[in-house]
Amino acid sequence: MIAIYTIVCLVLALLLIYFWLYQKVSKHIPENYPNAANLQKIDSNKKTLVCFGDSNTHGNVSYNWVNDLRSELDDYWVFNAGVNSDLTYTLLRRISDVIAAKPDLITILIGTNDVNATMNIKMEKRYQQLGRIGKDISPNFEDFKANYQQIIQILKQKTSAKIAVMSLPVMGEDLAHEANLRADKYSEFIKQLASDENLLYLPLREKQKAFLENNPQPLKHTFEETYILLNYSVIWHYIFGKSWDYVTAKHGFQLTPDNLHQNSIAGGMIRDLVKEAILKNK
Questions:
Q1: What is the gyration radius of the CA atoms in the chain, in angstroms?
Q2: CA 258 to chain centre
Q3: In whole angstroms, what is the distance from residue 77 CA to residue 66 CA?
Q4: Confidence at residue 14, expressed as pLDDT on a 0 to 100 scale
Q5: Distance, CA of 246 to CA of 249 (rounded, Å)
Q6: Chain centroid to CA 28: how far?
Q7: What is the chain written as a DSSP string?
Q8: pLDDT in tens, 228-251
Q9: d(CA 101, CA 39)
Q10: Which residues of 138-155 are buried (b: 16+ CB within 10 A; e: fewer)?
């Protein structure tokens, strides 16, 4: 009887942990998201920066470079408008939150999940189950381009902000993998769009690829293992208190703990590119 009771308690504890982690990853919103409550706190003596994107901006399953900017940019009020698992489709749903902040500068880092959703039907279904895309939507390059162009047009029409767009971070550290080849294609579009629309272009992908090319090392895991690596990363970080850098090293990578997200080196590259853009455009 005691053994059964112990097993039941263990199962319940594991379910509670799973539910908590699911909420942490899938439902969490940054504390400095531009919602109504936070908009009331804006310091009118500062400029407003809104960082718009997915988990690589959100920073709760990835290094939080936005928090670095909050502590380093004394003359900016910094909002984090990143949400885990978002695609260009979902940025369009949330774009009114960015507009409401009346930003002076907007950074956009989006596309990793748009690419990831095209890699196999299981990933597409996961984004559907999370409610990021409709059941009838199959993400593709043409939709990505149309969505991104619409995001830029809306922001240009409804804000007076400077807009800085970033090429995609590496998707795993095998640069010859199909995921990275697709991310190259998506990033080439972003670069061209920046030129066509007179936007600031931040070459994140170029910077990360150069780092990996200059520091080659054999890989322990493939891109196909991403989902399980992500689960392990979240457990290591939130259950055992390990840093994203620790998880990165454990998984045999240099820039990412799980093929999709950023450690402090990769996140630092994003932070520094944004800071450079601000300094050049004061």
A1: 19
A2: 13
A3: 11
A4: 47
A5: 5
A6: 13
A7: -HHHHHHHHHHHHHHHHHHHHHIIIII---TT---HHHHTT--TTSEEEEEEESHHHH-SSS--HHHHHHHH-TTEEEEEEE-TT--HHHHHHHHHHHHHT--SEEEEE--HHHHHTTT-HHHHHHHHHTTSS-TT----HHHHHHHHHHHHHHHHHH---EEEEEPPPPSSS-TTSHHHHHHHHHHHHHHHHHHHTT-EEE-HHHHHHHHHHHS----SS-GGGHHHHHHHHHHHHHTS---HHHHHHHTT-SS-SSSSS--HHHHHHHHHHHHHHHHHT-
A8: 999 999 999 999 999 999 999 999
A9: 6
A10: ebeeebbbebbeebbebb
Higher pLDDT, 18 or 37: 37
**214-224: pLDDT as tens digits:** 999 999 999 99
CA–CA gap between residue 162 and residue 200 (Å, rounded): 8
The type of residue at 73 is L
Residue 76, strand partner residues: 47
Task: Give the pLDDT band (50/70/90) at residue 6.
Answer: low
Residue tagged 């978002």 (tokens): 86
pTM: 0.94
State the architecture of 32-280 in CATH terms: 3-Layer(aba) Sandwich (3.40)
Residues 94 and 103: their CA atoms lie apart, in Å, by: 15
Length of the chain: 282
